[in-house]
Structure formats: structure tokens, C-alpha cells
Amino acid sequence: MENEETEYDYKKLKEAGKVSADALKHVATVIKPGTKLSDAAESIERFIADAGCGMAFPVNLSTGAEAAHYTPEFSDQRVIGDKDVIKIDLGARKDAYLTDCAMTMALDPAHLKLVEASEKALEDAISLVKSGRSINEIGREIEKTAKSCGFNTIRNLGGHGISQEELHADIFIPNFDNGDTTPLEEGQVIAIEPFLTTGVGYVTNGESIQIFQKTGDVMPRSQDSRDVLNHITEHFSTYPFAMRWLIKGMDGNEFKARRSIADLLNAGDLEAFPVLVEKSGGIVSQAEKTLIVEKDSCAIVT
Ligand code: CO
Q1: Which active-site residues does the annotation give?
Q2: What's the rounded Cα separation, in Å, for the pair 113 and 149?
Q3: For residue 236, which phi and psi values (nearest 5 degrees)?
Q4: CA of residue 223 to ligand 1 center, whole Å
Q5: Residues 92 and 22 in one domain
């Protein structure tokens, strides 16, 4: 932990940032009606791996009222429809340097206004970023832009600090003025992510859980669960992983993977991230970039 600040390698962060931004550009060629969500996810994840990076987390492809945390299931049969509004949230990792970025594609032109509003909210928020800026001012700006376009922001989702090894660290950057006057600091790495919706602006846990993260090291009794925990440690470390990655790693043994995950959750070795769904069923749009706070502005990493 010594000299962590001075050893921070912005070059590696920027490398991962470029790969993330390129992956988002690649997405536009992959996401179209008739494509299987799982094929789209694998194509994006392969793109990032081929560019020499790891995944900061499984690519999220949340549609409609799903705001976040949907990544395709193992043998997912869902096909992208011509009315879908799809959020693509992804992050590349170079060693311990993580990035996080997102965009939304509205295949139904009726929702383009919502998508453009979230992009504008992100731009307006970024224009305020500099050292000393209070985080509630960022949130106020995001909400102002959203309201001026006729939409609500999602109150219980927001941006965050990013530290080495940890995607959600230090600070929460709200999508409204929550009164938190914590100032941004020069050199800080943050992600700003306005979530806008046609609904009331609040997400709750949905039924589907596809993303997990290792948080403990208690060895379970069952041999299967031990195998699975060892696989997680070796292949995913403490980064979030997808159930479909694990099942593939178990040579398609779905029963073993699922039963062991339940066992490891019980033992306190894992955290689960359920799909987050807009409470009133509103359509959700998201835009996100990773930034480095500078003295008078910021550098965009993704
Ligand atoms: Co984020």
C-alpha cells in the first residue's frame, strides 16, 4: 500500500480507456435487431481481450426498464428486437487499472430523445468537472439537463470514484443535488453516469442475477464448491464475473456451477448483483465516461 498515490500509472489507465472507447464503437456494428444478446456480449468481450485487456466486469446489456446489471445468461436465447433500448455498459482492465463507460442504443426512434438527453446530461456534467468542484453541483447539473428534456434521473444510481482494483470506490456522484458538497480532487479517477428515465426515477432489484464477485475466502466443505471457488480465484480474482463465464469454465456443468454459487453465497464468499429495474417500468437510458480530474478541467479516459 506504500506510495500508492505516487505509483499510480495513468498510462495504463489510459490504455484501458482507449480499448473501452474502441469497444463501444465496435458495439454499434454488433447490436442490431435479430442478433442474440449472448452473441453481442461475446463479441464485445472478445474485442476487449483481443486488444490485450481484461474485463473490469462482464459487459452489461440491459434493455428497456432494466437499468443495469443484466449480462446474458448461459445459453441465453434472447434476441434483440427492433424496438429495444439497450444500454451497453463495459470496462476494460489493464493490470489493476479499471475503466467504466456506457452508451445507449435506441433501435426505436421514438426513444432517441431520451438517449440524446442522457448524452447531453453527461456532456454538461463533464464541462463542470475540475478540482474543488462539489459533487452535488455535478448532480444538480445532470438533473437540470434531464428535466429540461422532459425526463427524470434515477436517484439511487450514480457515478463513482475508481481506484486500483476497485470499480466503485471513495465517492458516489449523484444524478441530482443530494447536498453532498465533497469536492473533487486533482488526479482523482471518476466515472460520471447519468441514468435518465421516462419513469419515476428509482430502481429496485429484479429477479435475474447474472453477476457475482468474490468477497471472502471461506473454504466450503463440498468438493464441487471448492473447485468453483478455486476457479473463481484463479480466473476472475476479485473482479465481477458472469454466471455464463463460470458455467463455461466448468465445461458446461450448469448444475455444479449453480449449486456451488448458492453454497458460496451462503458461506459469505460472494456478493451477488441482481438486475436493477426501474420501479415504475419506465424506459431507461444511460451514458458514462471515465475521467481524470484536473486542476481546471478533466481528461476523458474512455
Ligand atoms: Co460506472
Answers
A1: 89, 100, 160, 168, 193, 288
A2: 8
A3: -115, -10
A4: 35
A5: yes
